[in-house]
Design brief:
The chain is α/β, with parallel strands linked by helices. It contains 16 helices and 7 strands. The chain folds into 3 domains: about 140 residues, P-loop containing nucleotide triphosphate hydrolases (Rossmann fold, 3-Layer(aba) Sandwich); about 60 residues, Helicase, Ruva Protein, domain 3; about 90 residues, Up-down Bundle (Zinc Finger, Delta Prime, domain 3), CATH 1.20.272.10. About 55% of the residues lie in helices and about 10% in strands. A 5-stranded parallel beta sheet has the order 2-3-4-1-5, with helices on both faces. Strand 2, helix 5 and strand 3 form a beta-alpha-beta unit. The two termini are about 45 Å apart.
Length: about 325
């Protein structure tokens, strides 16, 4: 395989949209944010949704359009709440910045990433800070789960719910990057990228850059190898072998996957979960397989031995396959 030297820049930053108009997907959200940018009247906001759907990018683009190119960096302050989850970060960094006057604008913006990881006490202190400094400061809270934010904060904010990006939106943006980087993406490579990313644009771009660092031609085989993701057909073969009643063959396929792709037990479980929906068996049987899969996933999260639990799951599939026959 030919070694290809990709750009040393991190592509997620290099190709991050700078304006709201350049954002991918989330059309309804973009229109509402454009209205805020036009009137220069921004309320407190909560951006909720899965990773890689444009929450941070939307906040940065909004700041660029509200404050302009010369003043946005002085009036936009980004913090990650997962670094310091306690009340100290609210009483220290956030409170100190919130009380300082904006530069060349009527207010400044504090962007608090992963705000749902703050403790209840920290959120209560944040509520008071939001309330006290509203005249010169706006808060944008980025969360994966808005339900983890206390009600007093939710009631003070406009909530924007980001959804996983559609496959066509991801494909369009990936093709744009590939053109600029002079890459060739095969059709199966593009489909593999969509499968691996699952609506997460950041993940898609990172995987593309890793693949590009190895070869200028991006194929499905290259992406699966570099992203530590098993091929869907390999997982499906594993399930079908188990349902066919051949436990030892299914066990050997399982360990081939663990060794070849370097997957963890939880990653295997997630891919098995996705593959169950594609099986050509009645829905009531899929329900039973899903129940067993969920049980094993819970045990793995609780700290059980992954090899024993995965073999147990295969054994359950073998027993269930005999019932099907």
């Amino acid at each position: 395989m030919t070694k290809y030297s990709a750009s040393e820049d991190i592509w997620t930053e290099k190709y991050r949209p700078k304006t709201l108009s350049d954002l991918v997907g989330q059309e309804n959200i973009i229109e509402r944010l454009k209205a805020y940018a036009t009137t220069k009247n921004v309320p407190h906001l909560i951006f909720a949704g899965p990773p890689g759907t444009g929450k941070t990018t939307a906040a940065l683009a909004l700041a660029h359009e509200v404050f302009g190119e010369h003043h946005w960096s002085q009036n936009f302050h980004e913090l990650n709440a997962s670094d310091e989850r306690g009340i100290g970060i609210i009483r220290g960094k956030i409170k100190d910045y919130a009380r300082t006057a904006p530069i060349g604008a009527n207010f400044k913006i504090i962007f608090l990433d992963e705000a749902d990881s703050l403790t209840q006490e920290a959120q209560a202190a944040l509520r008071r800070t939001i309330e006290k400094h509203t005249h010169i400061c706006r808060f944008i809270l980025s969360v994966n789960y808005s339900s983890k934010v206390i009600e007093p904060i939710q009631s003070r904010c406009a909530v924007f719910r980001f959804k996983p990006l559609l496959a066509e939106d991801v494909k369009k943006y990936i093709r744009k990057i590939a053109t600029k980087e002079h890459l060739e993406i095969t059709p199966d490579g593009l489909e593999a990228l969509i499968f691996i990313a699952r609506g997460d644009m950041r993940r898609a771009i990172n995987i593309l850059q890793v693949g590009a660092s190895i070869d200028k031609k991006i194929t499905a085989e290259l992406l699966y190898e570099t992203s530590a993701t098993a091929r869907p057909e390999d997982i499906k073969n594993l399930i079908n072998t188990a349902l066919g009643g051949n436990f030892m063959a299914a066990r050997n396929q399982l360990y081939d996957l663990l060794i070849t792709y370097g997957l963890s037990g939880e990653e295997i479980i997630k891919q098995i979960h996705r593959s169950i929906f594609d099986l050509t068996i009645p829905d009531e049987h899929k329900v039973n397989l899903m129940e067993k899969t969920g049980e094993v996933e819970f045990r793995l999260v609780e700290g059980s031995n992954e090899h024993i639990q995965l073999e147990s799951l295969i054994a359950q599939f073998v027993l269930f396959g005999k019932q099907l026959k």
